[in-house]
């Protein structure tokens, strides 16, 4: 995983955690409040959760795009260098066979 991807992942995790905590706090306050104040807090919590859903959808789309690009690059490499790809696959197979045989 690249450093950029790792940073985005940790930023997203932090963002999700903050959003959920904020929404939980607002809903807890709304439970102890009455009238307009409770309705306002519930509305803000719902808005925050909707925004979080949008950010998660964007992150999902970005992850799909990156995985498609990686698959396309791998496919291009294998087509450009078939014998090298076969050699690597055979080497990995031998290594796995040796590891399994040690048991």
Task: Give the topology, please.
Blueprint: H1 3-32, H2 35-80, H3 82-101
Helix pairs in contact: 1-2, 2-3
By DSSP, the count of extended strands is 0
Task: Decide which structural class fits the backbone.
Answer: mainly alpha
Q: Domains counted in the coordinates: how many?
A: 1
| Helical residues, percent | over 70%
Terminal-residue CA separation: 30 Å
Order of helices and strands: HHH
Q: Rg from C-alpha positions? A: 24 Å
Mean pLDDT rating: 85
| Largest sheet data | none
Beta-strand residue fraction: under 5%
Count of alpha and pi helical runs: 3
Low-confidence stretches: none
Question: Judging from the principal axes of the Cα atoms, what is the shape?
Answer: elongated
Please tell me about this protein's structure.
With 103 residues, the protein is mainly α. It has one domain. Helices cover 93% and strands 0% of the residues. It is built from 3 helices and no strands. It is elongated, with a radius of gyration of 24 Å. The mean pLDDT is 85.
Summarize the structure.
By secondary structure, the protein is an all-alpha fold. 93% of the residues lie in helices and 0% in strands. The protein has helices at residues 3-32, 35-80, 82-101.
Provide the descriptors you would attach to this structure in a database record.
103 residues; 3 helices; elongated
């Amino acid at each position: 995983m690249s450093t950029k991807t790792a940073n985005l992942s940790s930023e997203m995790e932090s963002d999700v955690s903050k959003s959920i905590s904020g929404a939980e706090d607002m809903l807890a306050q709304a439970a102890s409040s009455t009238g307009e104040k409770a309705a306002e807090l519930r509305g803000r919590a719902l808005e925050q959760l909707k925004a979080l859903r949008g950010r998660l959808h964007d992150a999902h789309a970005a992850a799909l795009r990156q995985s498609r690009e990686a698959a396309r690059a791998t496919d291009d490499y294998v087509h450009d260098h078939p014998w090298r790809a076969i050699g690597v696959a055979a080497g990995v197979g031998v290594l796995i066979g040796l590891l399994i045989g040690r048991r």
